[in-house]
Write a structure and sequence with these properties.
The chain has 129 residues and is α+β, with helices and mostly antiparallel strands. 50% of the residues lie in helices and 20% in strands. The relative contact order is 0.08. One of its GO terms (biological process) is protein transport.
Amino acid sequence: MRMIFAGAPDAGATTGTTATSTSGAGALMQMLIMLLIFFAMMYFLVILPQRRREKEFKQMVESLKRGDTIITTGGIVGKIIDIKKDTIKVKSANSTELEIHKAYIAKVIKEKEEVKEEENDNSKENSKE
């Protein structure tokens, strides 16, 4: 049995030393360009939107005031009765008061939104009758 071995193309050429060095530099540049494109995509698709969400959350927490209705990440709905440095005191039922860290506020429901929702509910009930 006879085995045939074919070497890499241009393996026997002795004058190809400059060609391999330029192709190596070209491959390095191509890899660097691909890495730059990858990092740019990560910045615009992941990092930038995360910064926007953090900024919006910070503005929401800073604009809290007594009387606002909030929803926590745990699903508790309540009205703010006291605001401290890192926590807020929320009244969630007739006599239940909870102290919640500001980081766990998911949404602030403004009074105007509540009025609109009540109007929509009332108009739906009136249309059913």
